[in-house]
Write a structure and sequence with these properties.
single chain, alpha+beta, 4 domains, 9-stranded mixed β-sheet, 11 helices, 33% strand, globular
Length: 461
């Protein structure tokens, strides 16, 4: 200031005004820059980097997931839907949980239903101790990263505030994920039947798929309300089929004799293909392990003549020999406990034509001619599938999204409580998108490099 006065005494007022303007401008610019660079709150980061990419694609406006859970996480008011709010899941609510607790500390963490649902490292506890809490989230094996889990955990332990910074954002740099435990043989059920496909070899760089007809040795009708499946790693799928009346008793396969779908040279076994025409789907999964329990009062009926064709499909894309093995437990209940007999839903589109180097979306509608209640849905497709959606067709819920996945390897198994009610003249529309990068057309087929478009599930009338 003194220097300016000495050099320019005659223009002092003008210079001072300019200097003040300069100082004000610098202050305003610095303030704006500070505002622009002000760090986001922990909750804003939870919303932006965890909820939006991992949750909102299913919990979207109008979807069945949103109606079932009461959570629409595609909007900007997620905080008010989550923190301090009781869950719609009756078991979790009765256990005193809220979706996210703001009590802080371990107490707040233990009272948060969300933490139970996303904490993959406590998966065995979740499945064993809380089978009525629904499935873990995100569905399938799309586990959150270790960094995302720790970021959410520290936020909940800090009282889940809507403003302020209580978690270190650098935690999100940890991209490791939970890995499910190694294959462990299942203990036989107290009431029910255990099936076992003993260890078998899968040759290097080969897809082995075979069927093994298994006698259940039941002398009277039984009712199953829980299915457990445990497989060694490398399985593409495992399915349990029965044979319908069209097969004819004289044409049934031998018991406990593997029937290969493909020979060692990759060509198809026509005899096996013929038996597949008479299959009725019973249960199955693409997960290495599954423990599915039907709602109380609902069970599958297996009559005294019922036997199962076990279908195992392993994909070995390594140069080493792979060993496969599968255990299945079918848990039974007394007939007096059964109010509704569950029936299998198996809707497939085999008219698949995917042009080379193009993205193709296929639609297929399946209508019902009598009222049904759908309690479960899960998709089946192969590696070129990028999105599989299911919407209701017809009625006052026309267009409602009830199923969505972008994971062809481990698609979620969705349970619906209350069930999806379809009236006569209504149905479901399958909308599936495929990305074919190859220089050839891809069609329906049984290899993982071919494609499929199937919706499985169960319902009762």
């Amino acid at each position: 200031m003194l220097l300016i006065q000495l050099i320019y005494p005659l223009n002092q007022n003008k210079i001072m005004r300019s200097y003040r303007v300069l100082l004000i401008s610098v202050f305003i610019f610095s303030s704006c820059e500070e505002i622009e660079k002000s760090p986001k709150s922990t909750w804003d980061i939870v919303q932006e980097k965890i909820i939006t990419p991992s949750c909102s694609n299913c919990h979207v406006t109008g979807s069945m997931m949103t109606k079932q859970s009461g959570l629409d996480l595609s909007q900007d008011d997620s905080y008010s839907q989550l923190v301090g709010v009781p869950p719609k899941n009756i078991s979790a609510k009765n256990d005193g949980l809220v979706i996210i607790s703001n009590e802080g500390g371990m107490k707040g963490l233990n009272k948060s239903y969300l933490w139970e649902k996303i904490n993959a490292y406590d998966r065995e506890h979740f499945l064993s101790d809380h089978p009525d809490y629904g499935q873990m989230m995100p569905p399938g094996q799309n586990y959150l990263t270790d960094g995302q889990l720790q970021f959410v955990r520290s936020w909940i332990e800090a009282g889940a505030p809507e403003s302020g910074i209580v978690s270190e954002e650098q935690l999100l740099l940890d991209s490791n994920k939970y890995t499910p435990p190694e294959f462990t043989p299942l203990e036989p059920p107290k009431n029910g039947i255990q099936l076992h496909i003993k260890p078998f070899e899968v040759q290097p760089n080969f897809e082995r798929e075979f069927f093994q007809y298994t006698k259940l040795n039941i002398s009277e009708d039984i009712y199953a309300n829980r299915i457990q499946i445990e497989m060694r790693s490398g399985s593409h799928h495992f399915i349990l089929y029965s044979f319908n009346d069209g097969m004819g008793s004289s044409n049934l396969p031998e018991f406990d004799v593997p029937r290969e779908l493909r020979f060692d040279d990759g060509s198809y076994n026509i005899k096996t293909l013929r038996t597949m025409q008479y299959h009725d789907f019973f249960s199955g999964t693409q997960w290495p392990r599954m423990d599915y329990k039907l709602p109380p009062g609902v069970a599958f009926k297996l009559d005294s003549q019922f036997n199962l064709d076990q279908n195992s499909h392993y994909v070995n894309r390594t140069d080493s020999l792979m060993i496969g093995e599968v255990y299945t437990n079918i848990h039974t209940v007394d007939k007096s406990e059964v109010l509704h007999e569950a029936k299998i839903l198996n809707w497939a589109n085999q008219q698949i034509l995917l042009p080379a180097q193009k993205i193709t979306t296929l639609n297929k509608v399946f209508m019902v001619n009598k009222p049904i209640n759908i309690g479960q849905l899960f998709s089946h497709a192969h590696e070129k599938m990028t999105e599989f959606s299911v919407i209701i067709k017809g009625g006052n819920r026309d267009g409602e999204l009830v199923y969505w996945t972008d994971n062809w390897q481990h698609p979620p198994i969705m349970s619906y409580d209350p069930p999806i009610k379809l009236n006569a003249g209504e149905g479901l529309q399958l909308i599936t998108t495929y990305d074919n990068p190859l220089n050839r057309t891809v069609t329906f087929g049984f290899l993982s490099t071919d494609e499929m478009m199937i919706l499985f599930g169960w319902y009762y009338e």
